[in-house]
């Protein structure tokens, strides 16, 4: 039997925030909020049912402005009216003593719900895209970038008022911040342009500094600033940014703001086992290990993606301080407790329709976003089919 004791050693995030084990409930939108972006009763029941799942919990993506909305029924942190629902969400997540972090996002040109609503999306540079219908990606003006940074500032204030223990700025692949750092997406020539490293990195650093500024001025209790990002971007032999450039970005970020952690994220199978693709001294090495060796000790590193068994959790923790799981907690909120009690054989990643009420899974959850579960395949095909069925029910309910 795997020795899982490393997973249950306490970990300090600083500022008096002590976690009693290494598991994190990673961000996942259930797509069950209201169309206006308000947290629903179903969202609250879902969060409450998972309050004891892990000592650190991160909400799904909250959009900082309406042009960054990826999911039709995701929730918003773009307006003051969102605070009441968000504060109930924070309370539900913290009901059993966990620390709750609000994830702040702008999905840029991948804001598929914005696209459906507005017929266009924003990005660093203009593009003409054909899918799912021909549309423009409009270039953000300097004025709009300034206002975007302010949106992150306002969102952070709202997170503090709502009673969260921190915010996570996500620059994972495809989101707006990441596309500014990417030479694939950024063709600008101004101060945010692709002509040199400092210009490409500017938006990331400005947002982190703006968020930190609000925390320093307005948070009375310890309040964490986490960062979620994809450490390299490649397409075949081409490089959007290399892991060395990402490390340089992290060096600069850590020098400017106290980051509570770096969550390593990407789309795909067993992401925690990804190897470096970009040419250079790290090519072929384990991405997580490179980051852990280069950044470890300066900020906690969180592995994510595909960690759905005690064996994989132990393997991931060899190159990280924390391990994040997303989809396993949908179907088994007691995932960690079973590992701790040596009852891993009782982990249920396969669920049936009759299990849904006891798991507080919203009737219409994951509407249209089940394909996201197919990228990682952390849940068995049967469970994913069940969720696909729920999405179909929802469409029938509405028509
Ligand atoms: C339905 C669904 C919704 C997701 N929503 C988010 C999100 O809001 N923010 C985010 O950073 N990642 C999101 N993700 C990615 C997950 O956090 C995670 O990286 C991915 O599911 C792989 O981890 P797992 O194997 O533990 O499930 C989502 C994934 C799925 C399947």
Protein described:
With 399 residues, this protein is of the alpha/beta class. The protein has 13 helices and 16 strands. The protein has helices at residues 41-49, 83-94, 112-118, 142-162, 176-181, 197-218, 243-256, 287-295, 310-317, 327-331, 335-340, 371-376, 381-398; strands at residues 11-12, 18-19, 23-25, 56-63, 75-76, 99-105, 120-123, 127-129, 135-139, 166-171, 224-229, 233-235, 238-241, 261-264, 301-304, 322-325. Strand 1 (11-12) and strand 2 form a beta hairpin. The radius of gyration is 20 Å and the shape is globular. The structure holds flavin mononucleotide. Residues 26-29, 60-61, 103, 170, 172, 228, 265, 304-307, 325-328, 366, 369, 372-373, 376, 378 line the site of flavin mononucleotide (FMN).
Largest sheet: 8 strands, parallel, barrel
Helix content: 25-40%
Count of distinct strands? 16
Strand percentage lies at: 15-25%
Which geometry do the CA atoms define? Answer: globular
The Cα radius of gyration reads 20 Å
